[in-house]
């Protein structure tokens, strides 16, 4: 990334190894003490996903930073490249000066060069809408669970070791099968999570007759405990590992992310209460046409068993700034081509979805009918059933956000 010299003298540039200490100190100061060691780990050569890091430097001092990671993302049966912006931090004296905006521009360019078709960020409400992000995915269901559940008879629970990797990977893959949108960690990534565990983290496994039957990764702070990674073979295994996970910190309760795994959700629902988030997770589609074409096999798979699989036709999806024509026939989406946008979509025989809600549609945050009911500019008209077939509501596994 080429450095950017601002009029106020601040330089926006790509970060290097020499900046790691300053980045870690800034993240610890502004995001919480545990984020200092956390951000250090992603600069480890064994961490596979770091794409780029940016810093804002004022008179030799790092005053703002942001990182972007690139990772695989499965949507249905299609795998694409996606990215995630994380560790966005600015010293209080330099906030409100557009430093994050300038760094985001550089990081988006780096992610685009890496082939990212969906860019995520988990952040404060509304803020990232200024930079082209919109709410594209729902937050996973979370539960507030008492920290003192008491142990249960069943599998042995202990700290995870690298020897447990095959069992952990198998359980994680099994849990993700229920998800339509998922980010799969490689064995190397799981090894990194075990080997680089911080003092504020715990990684527990439940073992039955030598086999790993459940795992849980917990992060704690002075007043919060988060169990963001948990999976098990069955409810007995999850009940065995959960007490150790939720009691890892000093807080009286723990937040458990149930993910898309119905086994974990069933256990959490029995011992805790739901704690839904009001907002979603941000997503940005840098090139919607490329994403649509990448998803063409998946769209065909959805179309084939439906009544539309026996028909031929075409429909234009207008974002009011751009247009995409879908041609279908013989049980497949034959072509997706750019066309002029339709200012009056339904009266012109098309469908209208504004670009700031396109990620919601394509990533399946809501059923299209629900999206139409919630957003005035979403107009599906007579193609409502076809759009619902191509873009149904999807179930999402938030593994990438558990970093």
Descriptive labels:
403 residues, alpha+beta, Aminopeptidase, Nonspecific Lipid-transfer Protein, Chain A, 20 strands, 9-stranded mixed beta sheet, 30% strand, 3 domains
In short:
The protein is of the alpha+beta class and 403 residues long.
Describe the structure.
Helices cover 28% and strands 30% of the residues. It has 403 residues and is of the alpha+beta class. The protein folds into 3 domains: 4-116, Aminopeptidase (3-Layer(aba) Sandwich), CATH 3.40.630.30; 142-276, 3-Layer(aba) Sandwich (Aminopeptidase); 287-390, SCP2 sterol-binding domain (Nonspecific Lipid-transfer Protein, Chain A, 2-Layer Sandwich), CATH 3.30.1050.10. A hairpin with a 5-residue loop joins strand 1 and strand 2 (11-14). Helix 1 runs antiparallel to helix 2 (35-42). It starts with a strand and ends in a 13-residue tail after the last helix. The mean pLDDT is 93.
